[in-house]
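JOB MANIFEST
job_type = single_chain_structure
chain_count = 1
residues = 195
[input]
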Amino acid sequence: MEQASPGFARWLGAVALAATAGLATMGAATAGTLTWDLDFTDNGTAVAAILTSSNTVDTSPAPTNGVGYGFNLTGISGTFGASSITGLAHSGALYSGSVIDDGTFTFDNIIYATSPHFDSAFGLAFLVGGEEYNLYASGNGYAEQASGALGSGGPDTVTRLRLRITPVPEPATLALLGAGLFGLGLIRRKNASAA
């Protein structure tokens, strides 16, 4: 079996070390957030969005809605048919024991932790172009209401709603992978110097 040159072993060790540092940094940067996939159909219009939230359940103060604690949403991006979703309504106004009333809708922008869902009274409010939309639980499903002239006909029934968390590798897992690559580089180097 042909042995690697000492230069190659040093190069491989440096690459493994750089990969470990890069992956650990990336993991630490995303460790404080969760990513959620949301998709549904609204009157034949496909909606696909990525939601971000804190990664801890907000337990203070006690909820006033009777459905328990949840994850504060911090961002949204995606498409509503051919239009772009431009952000959360009233972005930055997080749940604090009461709901947000921006004059158009009342909402809380929380994903509740018990079988992840939106609340029946409030829900998620987001912006598409100049219009605000509110997605909330209604009966045994979900409904969506638009602001302005788009919403004058009342809420639309939402079909095929899916809300699921997107797994993100833990920083410890990434560090373990990097350490393994670094160890392989050291073994190659030792074998090369012994030859």
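[summary]
DSSP finds two helices and eleven strands in the chain.
The CA atoms of residues 16 and 185 lie 7 Å apart.
exit_status = 0
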